[in-house]
Structure formats: C-alpha cells, structure tokens
C-alpha cells in the first residue's frame, strides 16, 4: 500500500542577530498588502479552512520540477488525470498566521515519514491524494482525497507552530486538477480561486474528515508490527 504524499520544509524563525528578522519581514509584508489594497487593514488570516500550497513547494512542469512561486499563467503543469495542463491563472496570498489556533497550524512531516527526502509541511485543509485498499472498499476507487489534517499522528506527522506570516499559492486550470508536487505528492488544485474550498468540486470528492480519519487509522494499523509469539516448548519423556 502506497501513501502518495510529499510536503515542503517548515522554515524556522530567524535569529535576532540577523539584520532583517521576522518582525521586519512581517511589517514589510503588511505594508506591501496595504499598498496593494489601498487599506490599512491587517493581512488576511490563515485559518483551519485555508487550502493551497505554501511557497517553496515544487510542482512538475513540462521542463522539470519548479518552485510553485515561479509558475505563471500559460505554463504547463503535470496533472494526475489530464497529463500536462495549462495554468489559467495563479492566486497568491500572504496570510497572517494564527499562533494560538492549533487547528490552523500547518502539518509537519518528518524526513522519510512519507518517503520525502526532507522535512516538509502542508496546510491542514489542503486535500491530498492517497492510495489504499480500504479506500477502494469504501468508495470503489483505490485513490482518495483527504484533508491533510487527517494525517495527524501518522508516522510522526504533527501540527507545527507557524511563523508570523505564510505565503500560499494556488494554481488554477480550466477545471479542477490534481497536480504532482515534490516528486510524488498529489495535491488538488481548484479551478475557482477559493481559499476555503466552498465552491463545489467539478470531478473530485474530498472525503469527510471522519472517513479520512478512519482511512488513516487503517494505514497506521497496517504498519504495526505483528505480535511475536515465543516458540512452544515440548517436554519429551525420558
């Protein structure tokens, strides 16, 4: 059974001896947001419903792997069902992280936990595709889309406290597509620019969290070591 998932490195906070620290960067991002919107309002907030890929995630393109922040409309990206598809538009959000609401925290994946070469993170509401025998029994399809938050506890995957802000990028195609990311991951990309996935899906169904939790529990149980039984000793009469 294969779990098809890769995620991105979680960046640590800058040390105080840097000339340009997190507080400065956050202030710069807020100023840039205000300039772009003509408003003094704070940055939009990252919450538990936010979907999208964090800057730094690599996606498969016609010319190889590329960081998602370098992708522009008109470029082609490899998709699970449609092969190479043209990106219609790109939505970029700089979101203020909530360091108190754990439900909104990105999920940290230790190196090697899912075959990933480096420690990675993904937003908790981002749908990811897994392959499982149980998924086929449940839905008739071995591939299932689940919210990343359902992976909590599997192979050391846990929510991680974010920095002050996080850049989220969404790729949009003519229709909903599942894209390859970080050399094997499968992430859902919406046709509509909807951070919270409230717009109905065209072709894909994301399992409800309760069913997704059951699926992940099944995967975890499969990996438990088989119980060890000591060999029975027989007494041979003299």
Structural account:
The chain has 238 residues and is α+β, with helices and mostly antiparallel strands. It is built from three helices and 14 strands. The chain has helices spanning 22-37, 133-139, 209-222, and strands at residues 53-54, 58-61, 64-67, 76-79, 83-86, 89-96, 107-109, 120-122, 127-131, 143-147, 158-159, 165-172, 177-181, 185-189. The strands form six sheets. A three-stranded antiparallel β-sheet has the order 1-12-6. A three-stranded antiparallel β-sheet has the order 8-7-11, with no helix packed on it. A hairpin with a 3-residue loop joins β4 (76-79) and β5. The model is unreliable at 1-37 (pLDDT under 50).
How would you concisely characterize the structure shown here?
With 238 residues, this protein is of the alpha+beta class. The chain has helices spanning 22-37, 133-139, 209-222, and strands spanning 53-54, 58-61, 64-67, 76-79, 83-86, 89-96, 107-109, 120-122, 127-131, 143-147, 158-159, 165-172, 177-181, 185-189. The longest helix has 16 residues, at 22-37.
